[in-house]
Amino acid sequence: MESTIEKLSDEDLMSRLAKGDHQAFCVLVRRHTQRFYGCAYRICLHENDAEDVVQDCFLKLWDRPALWQKGQGAKFTTWFYRVVSNRALDIVRKRQCAERTGGDELDAAASGDVGQEGMLQITQEQKALEAALSELSERQRQALNLCFYDGFSNKEAAEIMGLGVKALESLLMRAKNALREKMIKQGLIEEEKNYGS
Amino acid sequence: MDHNEDMEKVLAKRFTPAMREDLPERIIASSQKRGAQNRGGTIWLIIMRDGLLVPKPLFACIVIFALGLVMGLLGSNLAFDDAGLYMSDLVFTAEQVSEGDWL
């Protein structure tokens, strides 16, 4: 039973979940937690927050599976990424607000630091990379995350961001150009006389 | 070496700490607890709430606005007619008022 349900597609599992099938929910959670944790982490830059985001989103899915509508033609992963990234962005904005109003809960996201264990492991180079990435606009950073780290194709990333594929490609190009300049400033890569995109 | 390659090498080194291994099981355990609450008494409330969700808010706003405009125009005509009726009833001329009315 377990093995046959594990072979089902995400969309079929969602159909079963809509009927209250807890097994289907378990398979989805085990299949995607790691991936969406990574997505959430790259937005929050904080392990505990990223875990909370993923947990909240999966529990919301369990409570209200009707939020995903198969008829709209979106893949489960692209739809769920939007749910996760919106929740993660909410948390980041709340933190930024708290920081602006004098709260000291957040050093992590803005400075590119990470929590507890990550703090020890992170190298100077990675800190510089996070700083460079944090200087990009939110859209540019999201495009880079989707295409470079989260394993979405350009078409899926464009769908998630509500753009055409060409618009996404040009956004990516601008993100890479901006990042290249910031990396050169940070000393992460060397400047070249001529570089094309 | 191509600058793009250089950059992608640096990007590939981006650090993502591993999640706690028990996270999926914690999510599943929480869902079981919530399931016991929700699937019992309040599930019908959730179903009703989901049923009332507007799938396309912009479309719904435009339809409501258009409907309001039409009803407003029709309503204002009716109100004008009604007001006309009452106004004619309320207008008194000197001939209509006799001395006895004052006493």
Overview of the molecule:
The complex is a heterodimer of chains A (197) and B (103). By secondary structure, chain A is mostly helical. Helices cover 72% and strands 0% of the residues of chain A. In chain A, helix 2 (10-18) packs across helix 3, helix 3 packs across helix 9 and helix 8 (124-134) packs across helix 11 (165-186). Chain A is globular and about 55 Å long. Residues 103-113 of chain A have low confidence and may be disordered. The mean pLDDT of chain B is 74. Chain B has 3 helices and no strands. Chain B is an all-alpha fold and 103 residues long. The chains are: A mainly alpha (197), B mainly alpha (103). Chain A binds chain B through residues 20, 22, 25-26, 29-30, 33-34, 37-38, 41-42, 47, 50-51, 54-55, 58-59, 62-64, 66-67, 69, 114, 117-118, 121-123, 125-126, 129-130, 133, 144, 148-149, 176, 179-180, 183, 188-190, 192, 195, 197, and chain B through 2-4, 6-8, 10-11, 13-17, 19-20, 23-24, 26-28, 30-32, 34-35, 38-39, 46-47, 49-50, 53, 55.
Helix and strand layout, with pairings?
The complex is a heterodimer of chains A (197) and B (103).
Chain A: H1 2-6, H2 10-18, H3 22-44, H4 47-63, H5 76-100, H6 108-111, H7 116-121, H8 124-134, H9 138-149, H10 154-161, H11 165-186
Helix pairs in contact in A: 2-3, 3-4, 3-5, 3-9, 4-5, 5-10, 8-11, 9-10, 9-11, 10-11
Chain B: H1 3-12, H2 23-52, H3 57-90
Number of strands of chain A: 0
Mean model confidence by pLDDT of chain A? 82
Largest sheet of chain A: none
Q: What percentage of residues of chain A falls in helices of 4 or more residues?
A: over 70%
In one word, what is the shape of chain B?
A: elongated
Radius of gyration of chain B: 36 Å
CA-based gyration radius of chain A:
19 Å
Work out the strand percent of chain A: under 5%
Largest interface: A-B, 49 and 33 residues
Please identify the structural class of chain B as seen in this structure.
Answer: mainly alpha
Mean pLDDT of chain B: 74
N-to-C SSE series of chain A? Answer: HHHHHHHHHHH
Instruction: Supply the number of helical segments of chain A.
Output: 11
Strand content of chain B: under 5%
Uncertain runs of chain B: none
Order of helices and strands of chain B: HHH
Query: Span between N and C termini of chain A?
Result: 51 Å
Structural shape of chain A: globular
Flag low-confidence runs of chain A. 103-113
Task: Specify the oligomeric state.
Answer: heterodimer
